[in-house]
Design brief:
The chain has 74 residues and is of the alpha+beta class. It has one helix spanning 50-64, and strands spanning 17-21, 34-38, 44-47. It has a domain at 16-49. It is globular.
C-alpha cells in the first residue's frame, strides 16, 4: 500500500482555520451554525450554513493567493 506523498509535506499556517460550532448545530439535519477564524490574519465570520463556512474559507484563501477578495470581515 503506497502512501500519498503530499501527506508527508508540512501544512502552511496560512491555510489554518479555527471552526467553532454552536449548540444550534445539528449534523443529522444538515444544520451548521458557528464561527470561523483564519488563524494567521484573524479574519473571522459567523455562519449559518456549511456553504457559508466554506465560502469564507474560499474567499480568505483566494485573497491570500493574490486574487481579489470580496466581503471578508475582520
Amino acid at each position: 500500500m503506497s502512501q500519498d506523498p503530499s501527506a508527508a509535506r508540512p501544512l502552511p499556517a496560512r491555510g489554518a482555520f479555527v471552526v467553532q460550532f454552536g449548540t444550534d448545530t445539528d449534523v443529522a439535519r444538515g444544520r451548521f451554525v458557528g464561527r470561523i477564524e483564519h488563524v494567521v490574519s484573524g479574519q473571522a465570520t459567523h455562519f449559518r450554513t456549511l456553504e457559508a463556512c466554506l465560502a469564507f474559507v474560499g474567499r480568505v484563501l483566494a485573497y491570500r493567493h493574490g486574487q481579489p477578495c470580496a466581503d471578508v470581515t475582520h
